[in-house]
Amino acid sequence: MSRHDSTPRAAWNLVRNDPVAYLFSWSQWVLFHMSPLVVGYLLKLVLDRLDVADPQVPVLLLVAILGAEVGRWTLLVSAAVQWHGAWVGWLTVPRVNALSSLATGGGPVAGRLPGSPGEAVSRFRDDTQDISLVLDVWLDVSGAVAAASVALVVMFSIDPLAAGAALLPVAVAVAISAALGPVLRTWRRDAREATASVTGFIGDTFGGILAVKTNAAESAVDTRFAALNASRAVVGRRDALGSEVIRSLGYGTGEVAVGVVLLLVASSLRSGELSIGDIGLFASYVPIVAGLPRWIGRLGVYHRQADVSVDRLAELMPVPDRHAALRPVRTHLRHGPPPMEPTATDGGRLQHLAVEGLTVRHLGSGRGVTDIDLDVRRGELVVLTGPVGSGKTTTLRAILGLVPRESGTITWNGVVVDDPALSLVPPRTAYLPQVPRLFSESLADTILLGHPDHELERALRLACLDEDLAGMADGPRTVIGPRGLRLSGGQIQRTGAARALVRRPELLVVDDLSSALDVETERELWRRMVEDATSSVLMVSHRPHVLEMASRIVTLDAGRVADVVEQG
Ligand SMILES: Nc1ncnc2c1ncn2[C@@H]1O[C@H](COP(=O)(O)OP(=O)(O)OP(=O)(O)O)[C@@H](O)[C@H]1O
């Protein structure tokens, strides 16, 4: 989507999302822009009738002007309220599109973000806003064009030469804006990228705050942050300067036009060709025409900014979806969201997960796993073990589609799983990594992640969190701080376990828990889980008591299966 016809297409898709709201907004803004025509015409009538014998006529006309002004401002308030609702919708549609593409796109999740998560925030925030601004400026431009056209027709009928002079700045501003376009587009892209690297760095710093502190890297972080900000300041200033030049050009040429036209019509007044009312009308209509370059300049700037933003947003969409970016979506802005639809669980309950010839090569190191065969049957506990770096985590993550595989097949009850990242997800499968990522909300929220809470108590008990809860002020509603900062390492891991168990997965995939759980707690966790027996389990462990419980032990060495022991 890197061609620059993509902005009108993206904007049009946003209009199509709720055409009635857009049409309503549009008609109100067009009326608002046209309302000064009425006031200007009434002014002409007042001025032309000042010498009329009956003093009631100008007074009535003045009352009419007042009424027109009140109507104009009422229209403004109503248009602004309506616009705000529409604006939030325009912002929401690209965000929903990008988010659902990221959530449901093909391939490993990590590969779906073009940069860091912090950098993606800038795309969601700034780029969606830039696209919405195009829709916004369309409202004003169509109002301004309609008002200027009527004003020109009326002025032409009075003084064609002066009316022609009012058009001149429009042509100048359009020509300059078109000439500067490509440069402005480059400046905008540089500015967006610089902003993205700052937000990305902030995200990384917050994410790794512990590493920063324990390595006393605060001043290095400061220096890097200052350098990123300094280069952002340079490109940001350049970008702002470019936009302001175009805007000021609009204002400047507009002012010149007003001056020239008034000079022209003033001489006609002296010669008696025009009435004082005509001058009044020109004085109020010329700014309407002269304001047009301002809007057209803004239209150009916003379109070029949005060209960059549409490209950047399209990078968040998986490849097959790029051209369908910004499809109409249902937004739920006035009421809460509808209940989540259950994830499809085609292929039925797990009877047999089979992995054959799984080979993964990590980019960079070239290491990974080769030709791994593995089976997990219903109710089994299959344990992967082996020395450090032998490929245990890689195997788990490749089965779940979290890293891309070079070759190999995965079947669920004999049905080939093409993209495990899309189908080996809850409630089918749950994954408990070595260090689960928690959110800063309450314990219950970070476990449930939107799941109904009727399973919460069971999950808390199975994950051996029930005793810990007794010491928490608000029980499961206790807020656990950023990424669970107020929890111990073991509590974080058991919270991750509860999150995996609350969805009653068919297959539970667990990485090595021994880093944070003591032997006794881990043994108890497994005892409770085996008793509950709702899942088949594939896990990495070295612990003898886990190996004892295993139905099958698969030992890896240097990325290959070295041994398989069946334990019945
Ligand atoms: N993201 C990555 N990029 C490059 N190489 C990687 C990546 N992840 C793992 N590796 C390499 O792949 C090999 C297997 O790593 P993996 O983490 O799967 O081993 P492991 O058996 O789980 O190790 P541990 O017991 O330390 O957790 C290692 O040599 C490792 O250095």
For the structure shown, list the relevant keywords.
single chain; 568 residues; alpha/beta; ABC transporter transmembrane region fold; Rossmann fold; 6-stranded mixed beta sheet; 10 strands; 60% helix; binds adenosine-5'-triphosphate
The number of E-state strands comes to 10
Instruction: Spell out the CATH superfamily of the largest domain.
Output: ABC transporter type 1, transmembrane domain
Q: Characterize the largest beta sheet: strand count, sense, and whether it forms a barrel.
A: 6 strands, mixed
Terminal CA distance: 56 Å
CATH architecture of the largest domain: Up-down Bundle
Say which molecules are bound, naming each kind only once: adenosine-5'-triphosphate
Bin the strand percentage.
Answer: 5-15%
Query: How are the strands of the biggest sheet laid out side by side?
Result: 6-7-8-3-9-10
- If you compute it from the alpha carbons, what radius of gyration comes out, rounded to the nearest whole angstrom? 33 Å
What is the helix/strand order? HHHHHHHHHEEEHEEHEHHHHEHEHEE
Q: Which geometry do the CA atoms define?
A: elongated
* Number of helical elements: 17
Q: Tell me the name of the CATH class of the largest domain.
A: Mainly Alpha
Low-confidence stretches: none
